[in-house]
Amino acid sequence: MKILFSLTLIVLAMNVSAQEMNKKIHDQSHNKDILINACTREGIVNFPEFKEMYDPIYAAYTPDAATLIELKKLLKKEKIKIVFGTWCGDSKVNVPNFFKVLDALHFKEKNVDIIAVDGTKKAENGIIDGLNIQRVPTFIIYDKKGIELGRIVESPKTTLEGDLLAILKKKA
After folding, report:
1. pLDDT tier for residue 17 given thresholds of 50, 70 and 90
2. Can you spell out the DSSP letters for 89-121?
3. What is the pLDDT of residues 55-67, one digit of tens each?
4. Domain ranges within the chain, ordered by starting residue
5. Which of 116, 124, 69 lies closest to 88 in space, CA to CA?
6. Contact criterion met (CB below 8 Å) for 70 and 164
7. Residue 92 CA neighbour count, 13 Å, CB half
8. Secondary structure letter of residue 3 according to DSSP
9. Tens digit of pLDDT for each residue in 129-171?
10. pLDDT at 109
C-alpha cells in the first residue's frame, strides 16, 4: 500500500511539473492561434505567424561587434528568461534580434527559458506569476544564483546588446 501511494504521488508530481512545450491555443483577445507557456526556440521559429518575420529579421540584424567583445567577458553563467507573444509586433522584431546576439556570444540555449503569453500577457499554471510582466517581449537576466540583474522591456533603450551590457556592467 505504501509503495502504491508513493508511486501515485510521483505520477501526480510528474503531471503537474510536465508542461506541454510549444502549446498552441486560440487567443480570444487577438482572435488567432498563438503559442502559450514554455516554448523551445525550435517551436517558436517554426510557428507559422512568428516564422514569417523571424527568418528575415534574424538574418538582417548585425549586433555591434565592440559591444559583443565586452559582453563576451561578462556573460558567463547567467540565465535569461524571455517572455513574449507570438501575436506581438515588438516580440516579432526583438526576439529574433536577441537570439542573434546570444548566438554571436555562443550563449548556451539551456540557460534560456522561453515563455509565450496570450493577449492579456498571461500564461497557464502560474508560470509567470511574480514576474510582473507588463509589456512584451520582456528579457529578464538572472545571475547564477537566480537573482534578477535587470530586464529589457518591450524595446531596448539603445540596442539589445547595449542594454544587455549595461545590465551586466551593473553586476560587475
Report:
1. very low
2. HHHHHHHHHHHHHHHHTT--GGGEEEEE--TTS
3. 999 999 999 999 9
4. 21-171
5. 116
6. no
7. 13
8. H
9. 999 999 999 999 999 999 999 999 999 999 999 999 999 999 7
10. 94
Enter the pTM of the model: 0.88
- Given the C-alpha cell 548556451, which residue does it identify? 108
In angstroms, what CA-CA distances link 134 with 27, 98, 109, 122?
18, 19, 25, 10
Residue with cell 498563438: 34
Q: Which three cell numbers stand for residue 92?
A: 516579432
Residue 49's Cβ-count burial label (10 Å; 0-12, 13-18, 19+) is: middle
Q: For domain 21-171, which architecture applies?
A: 3-Layer(aba) Sandwich (3.40)
Closest residue by Cα to residue 23 from 38, 42, 7, 2: 38
